[in-house]
Amino acid sequence: METRAREGNAEVDASEGSRASSAAARALRPSFLAARRGSRFAHQEFVRLCADAARRGTLTVGDARVEAALMGLSAEARMGQSEQDAFASAVAMVILTLRRFDDAFDASAEIDPEARGMLKYIEMTNKNADEGHTLRRMELERRFLNPESARRAPAPHETIMRMNCKLTLLTREMIEHERGITSARRELEALSASVSTERTEVIEIETKQQLALGWCTRERTPARALASDMLVAFFSVLTGHPVGYRAFVRAARTAYESGISADEITAALDGAELDVEGTRRGMFGRASDAPKLFAGFVSTAYVAFEAQGLPLPPAANGDEDLYAYANYPRAIDETGVEREEESDDKKRAFSRGLRQAVELWLTMDREELANQVQASLSMDEGDDDVAKQPFETGTPPPPGDDESFGVVRDDSLSRSSITIETLRNQKNIVSFVRDELARDAR
User: Which superkingdom, per the lineage (predicted)?
Assistant: First the structure.
């Protein structure tokens, strides 16, 4: 009897552990996809979330391999083969770096030969970083010493290697930041400089001490935490990935119901945190457009929630238009001049104009809207033949016999026009808002 009870308890524990591992792995998916798209901020978020799960014991290297394979079979969140490999490798890189450099981390578990090989890579990468081969230097060398390499799309193995390099250096930087080692190193470097050293030179010395991309040290307020979730999801929204839309909308709903205005969400971010590096495959627009697009998508979600009847929180003071307005996250504009603040009347006018478009999409037949959205999604970002491309170019048509212009249908216009693509993404957000609220009625 006792034996059966123990076996039953063991099965329950195993089942709960499996669910916890699955939840931890899925929570990493948005930041993983954004990191694959070149988001520097997403690399930091991935490290933070992965390290937290590993320290709680809810995610191991083995769990990551299993969960990646399971996500490859999932109809809702399908993961391509190259993505499965990259995901398992990325999780292993963070956990094994913790094992190597964090004395407080439980390193009692056995590791397989593949993991031992990765540990050697971690040792080599961090040793090179200590000798000056930081991520910043490697990126500059790639860009200036080999410009052809910087322009072409990297091969899959190159993408994984670059991502792994960033992740191990960021993980070590996180550990050192927690212990105050990074700050102490910078202080020692500054003190070792000659007394005659100019302050600007000291600042340069301090900047060079960053092992990787500059750790995110801002306080994680509720607005900051939700803005971070929405930002990493935003990069997958740009590539039409359903995981990005779901994560973006769910974080937006939490913020909306928590009394955090759309403007507070965007104000919690710096414009530089929307930067991407390398090849932005599947993304549209210029990098400088990203802050404005992000603000527009946040406002779209807020307007859609209000239009769908989600109660306005007390913090909105009954002003749904002002509550939904979001300025783009950049303290100063591109000229270096402080941006002129819009009047409340202009902000309300913007939200009212956006509401007209949102309500038009909401009047569409639910099935028709869902079909249009489904046709625009890109599920497998690891497959170049399947992943959504920004645009294509072809041979121009020959002129007519009467010397008139040749006219042909441009099927790539919807992918090359930032206006059309932005409207499509906003329409998709509205559809996912509707789906999110429909879950409550089930």
Answer: Eukaryota
Among 153-167, 304-318, 385-399, name the one with the lowest average pLDDT.
Answer: 385-399
Same domain? 320 vs 432: yes
- Verify that 76 and 190 share a domain, yes or no: yes
For residues 201 and 171, membership in a common domain is answered with yes
Same domain for 201 and 281: no
Mean pLDDT of the chain: 77
Query: End of a domain among 177, 208, 239?
Result: 208
User: Measured in whole angstroms, how far is the alpha carbon of residue 291 from the centre of its chain?
Assistant: 14
Question: How far, CA to CA in Å, does 423 sit from each of 281, 363, 427, 436?
Answer: 20, 16, 6, 20
Residues written for the chain = 442
3-class DSSP state for residue 385?
A: coil
Does the pLDDT value for residue 211 go beyond 60? no
Sign of CA dihedral 276, 141, 129, 115: positive
127 plus 228 within the same structural domain:
no
pLDDT (mean) for 157-169: 87
Q: Give the amino acid at 108.
A: S
* Residue that finishes a domain, picked among 156, 175, 208: 208
- Give the max Cα distance, the chain: 94
Structural domain span for residue 365: 222-373+418-441
The pTM assigned to this predicted structure is 0.79
| Average pLDDT of span 400-416 | 49
Q: Which residue has the tokens 């040792």?
A: 123
Going from the C-alpha of 93 to that of each of 18, 64, 252, 259, 381, the distances in angstroms are 21, 11, 30, 38, 21
What distance in Å separates the CA atoms of residue 184 and residue 428, rounded to the nearest whole number? 48
The candidate with the shortest Cα–Cα distance to 126, out of 166, 158, 99, is 166
What's the whole-number mean pLDDT along residues 179-183? 67
Task: Identify the weakest region by mean pLDDT among 1-5, 168-172, 388-392.
Answer: 388-392
Residues 34 and 183 in one domain: yes
